[in-house]
Amino acid sequence: MHVYDAVVIGAGQAGLSASYHLKRLGIDHVVLDAAERPGGAWQHRWDSLTMADVHGVADLPDAAAPGGSGDRANVVVPAWFGDYETTHALPVERPARVDRVTSQGELLVVHAGSRSWRGRTIVNATGTWDRPFVPYYPGADTFRGEQLHTVDYPGPEHFRGKRVLVVGGGASAVQFLGELAPITDTLWVTRRVPVWNEGGFDGRAAIGRVLDRVREGRPPASVVSVTGLALRPQERLAESLGAYRRRPMFTRIEPDGVRWSEASTGSDAALEAVDVILWATGFRPAVEHLAPLHLRTRYGGIALQSGGSDVQTAVTAAADPRVQLVGYGPSASTIGATRAGRAAALAVRRYLAETVGMAADTVGMAAETATA
Ligand SMILES: Cc1cc2nc3c(=O)[nH]c(=O)nc-3n(C[C@H](O)[C@H](O)[C@H](O)COP(=O)(O)OP(=O)(O)OC[C@H]3O[C@@H](n4cnc5c(N)ncnc54)[C@H](O)[C@@H]3O)c2cc1C
Hints:
- By secondary structure, this protein is of the alpha/beta class.
- The protein has two domains: 3-130 and 283-371, FAD/NAD(P)-binding domain (3-Layer(bba) Sandwich); 140-194 and 229-279, FAD/NAD(P)-binding domain (3-Layer(bba) Sandwich).
- Helices cover 23% and strands 17% of the residues.
- Helix 3 (171-180) links the parallel strand 10 and strand 11.
């Protein structure tokens, strides 16, 4: 069986950036993507999310991102990714959902059902969309209404006339409330008091906090969760309707709604009847297929080696230098994904030079100066 120098898993922003740089460095690789079509997680975003709504999609190497517009993000970004794959002739194979990566001596074997690929290294770029997270609350299975997660959001019209409880303190919850409050009755609960960032935030410091967690091998917090929240012009109407008056988490779920205990309200136990619970409670890294490599620390996360001066270049698994993780932890944003892709390609080249004796200058040293 052919042995690739690198097997990239996932063809979202992080995987495409990695593949671009691997190609420039002359490193023999393949990109395996579970999806039927190009677009990474963007192809699954809800229809009402336009390019003007997104927080900003960063450029890919050598390709400016499509700007803000009223066009649907789930059409524009996938088309841009598709063009990118074609223009740069990136070696993407799909659909190929990797279910397991095992170690065989010096090599890594990447399995997707009955198919497998062998590589000296892997670049894992599987994002988070495939692992939606819903916290456990007692009584959830007794609820007679509808429960949806961000991944299921069907657009605001679906909720007209229904009382909707939005759970979660992230950007998606803020966006959903902005769309729903003008057309229906909403309630908002979050675990922590939301941090509003009217005056901007220090992105580098925020990402640095996520990096500190992954250096220690703790499960990464999302970058968005540490940057704070901001209301955009399209959310001002919802704000004036009181949609962003947040309540603490309820204690349990009942057939017709949710209940706060006496301890949490400071007075009587309170029940709010709701028709829908919309869990905007985020995602976890989609890395279960890496379990056979035993990369997790006792804290449950995958520790990354420190990556020099740029906080988004920490990509190499501390437990196994053959494994790079991009779009994970501090690089889980589009700009982070683009930068980490380059860092991963350089780390792969370093590993190959050290272990296989591949001379660094035979694999496109010039690309080292390429802009990320
Ligand atoms: C609702 C939402 C809105 C966001 N908006 C913004 C924004 O405006 N700006 C911003 O910078 N960031 C935003 N983010 C974060 C941003 O989307 C991500 O950090 C970035 O796009 C992720 O890119 P990625 O390549 O890491 O992952 P993805 O885009 O998720 O790509 C991962 C790819 O890997 C594939 N894959 C997954 N598992 C496997 C497997 N086992 N085998 C093979 N392939 C697999 C998937 O099919 C997918 O194609 C948002 C996130 C969410 C959830």
